[in-house]
Amino acid sequence: MDASAPAPANLAGDGISTFFNETTASQFGYHQAPDPRDLLRDEVEAAGGSLYAGRGDGFLDQLSICNLEGQAAVAGVSVEEFKERFNKSVEGAQADPSSISSQLNRLGTDRTSPELSAAAASWRECMAPLGISDLPDRPWDAGSTGGLPESLRDKWNWRPIATPSADEIATASADAACRASSGWTDTLYQQEWDTRQAFVDAHRAELAPVLAEHQAKAARAREIIAKGGV
Q: Closest Cα partner for 148 from 135, 137, 163?
């Protein structure tokens, strides 16, 4: 990874989701745009989506160790201390559903709300001419295999890391236009924004130390990158 390179063109503000509209659909379909930070993307695509297949348990075990060492270095602790902290953190979050971490993990928008249900019905009507036999009740999230209708996954042999076909581009472009005209895109955006803003307003004091911890880790990661390794 090249941490100094720009992020994918359709990477959403959360750093995980794929931003999907008529412009991005016309270029990337349902895929995330090529990631300039990923120096192995071409090799991954050529390998069918994974460089790990067939490498054996020994390789995966070593990879896990490397990841653990990196996470411990960013946290500024030993590997053993990191494992102990991580396990306690996971156990604590599971034991206390009222913790700020658990609440954050559950934070989401009700996509069955009256406004979104009405927009979804209009979207389905707009999508009907495409003849997708297993069209879901409401739009799915782009960029992941999970939400894409099975008929389209099979038709395109869809993989997360791949170049979209012309047919995928055409379908995604029509889909993005339907999401916009039905009101789905704007309604979902506003409801997601309102949900998150309300949560931040209600829990600002609890979130402050969480933010400080993330900022400290980011600073530590930049130090490690500047030195060229842990």
A: 135
d(CA 22, CA 175): 8
| Bridge partners (DSSP) listed for residue 18 | 11
pLDDT tier at 87 (50, 70, 90 boundaries)? confident
The total of other beta-carbon atoms located within 10 Å of residue 120's CB is 23
C-alpha span between 41 and 208 (Å, rounded)? 36
Contact 134, 153 (CB under 8 A): no
Please tell me the predicted confidence (pLDDT) of residue 201.
94
In sequence order, the 6+-apart residues with CB closer than 8 A to the CB of 223 are none
Rounded CA separation 78/139 (Å):
44
| pLDDT recorded at residue 194 | 95
- Which tokens hold the place of 166? 């012309």
Q: How far apart are CA 86 and CA 60, in angstroms?
A: 20
Q: What is the 3-state secondary structure (H, E, C) of the chain?
A: CCCCCCCCCCECCCCCCECCCHHHHHHHCCCCCCCCCCCCHHHHHHCCCCCCCCCHHHHHHHHHHHHHHHHHHHHCCCHHHHHHHHHHHHHHHHHCCCCHHHHHHHCCCCCCCHHHHHHHHHHHHHHHHHCCCCCCCCCCCCCCCCCCCHHHHHHHCCCCCCCCCHHHHHHHHHHHHHHHHHCHHHHHHHHHHHHHHHHHHHCHHHHHHHHHHHHHHHHHHHHHHHHCCC
